[in-house]
Design brief:
With 279 residues, the protein is α/β, with parallel strands linked by helices. The chain has a single domain, classed as Purple Acid Phosphatase, chain A, domain 2. It is built from 9 helices and 12 strands. The protein has a 6-stranded mixed β-sheet with strand order 1-6-7-8-10-9, covered by helices on one side. It is globular, with a radius of gyration of 18 Å. The chain binds manganese (II) ion.
Length: 279
């Protein structure tokens, strides 16, 4: 386990200080939006009602993102609606903070401008008003046991590779990603959630120690939970909190969707249903 560190250098993190007016901070991830439906309608209701002053969307907001030019394409009205709904939330005074997932890592400047959102590097440190430092990540970079995925990740996160992809016509990019998604779905069906590599506990602990944080919040694995990470020599409790994915369409397995919320004066983060978080 401890051999993972040298081959997986710990990335730098951006430090974000919670503002004094942030009384409610929400984290969600893995919405995997692709079309209008039950998941989107529940999310939209939540976005319109949340009392949060800051909303962190920790990756895989979209099932796939082929380039920001979909925002100018008549065939992608759904993606435009999502961006506009985030912008409406921002207009009401909530800061919208995004992180890339392994599905939507091509979200770029034009999307952020339309959604009035800010893209954060993965990982980022959120320092809460009480001084607690929380490390935020999508989580895929910590699933190092999936060697094939880690190689794929390195390739597709290469700016030159991305540039080449984005130079293809939009229709060609859509077709290419559909093919890749079919392969990925076949693998998902064959392995099941439990068959996927999980976050490497030792690497997660190393990330926390390097960034002087005590809690890691991430998504990606679709295994909501909370796990202690500290070793006997650690001076304080270290843990990771795993966000739920959102899947509310009928016929897609058990329905699931959660908001993780921090509130000033509350002892800890709370898991809420979207309906409970929307009041
Ligand atoms: Mn993911």
């Amino acid at each position: 386990m401890s051999t993972s560190a040298p081959t997986h250098p710990i990335p730098a993190a951006e430090l974000l200080l919670a503002e004094a007016g942030w009384h409610t901070i929400d984290c969600i991830s893995d919405l995997h939006l692709q079309q209008d439906g039950a998941t989107w309608q529940t999310l939209r209701h939540y976005l319109r009602q949340t009392p949060a002053q800051a909303l962190f969307l920790l990756g895989d907001i979209f099932e796939v993102w082929v380039g920001d030019d979909v925002l100018d394409d008549a065939g992608h009205a759904f993606e435009q609606q999502v961006a506009d709904e985030l912008a409406a939330l921002a207009a009401r005074g909530c800061q919208v903070l995004l992180m890339h997932g392994n599905r939507d890592f091509l979200l770029a400047q034009a999307f952020c401008e339309r959604a009035r959102a800010r893209m954060l590097p993965d990982p980022s440190v959120l320092q809460l008003p009480d001084g607690e430092r929380v490390l935020l990540s999508h989580g895929d970079a910590l699933c190092i046991d999936d060697v094939a995925y880690m190689q794929f990740r390195q390739t597709v996160r290469n700016p030159a590779v991305q540039q080449q992809f984005l130079q293809q016509p939009l229709a060609a990019r859509v077709a290419m990603t559909q093919q890749m998604r079919a392969q990925s779905d076949a693998r998902k069906n064959a392995l099941g959630v439990e068959g996927y590599a999980d976050v490497d506990a030792e690497l997660a602990r190393a990330w926390l120690l390097a960034h002087d944080a005590t809690t890691l919040i991430h998504g990606h694995t679709h295994r909501p939970g909370e796990h202690a990470l500290q070793q006997p020599q650690d001076r304080c409790a270290l843990r990771r909190i795993v966000l739920s994915d959102w899947e509310l369409e009928p016929g897609h397995g058990p329905q699931r969707a959660q908001v993780l919320r921090w509130q000033a004066g509350s002892p800890d983060w709370q898991r809420l249903s979207p309906a409970a978080a929307a009041v």
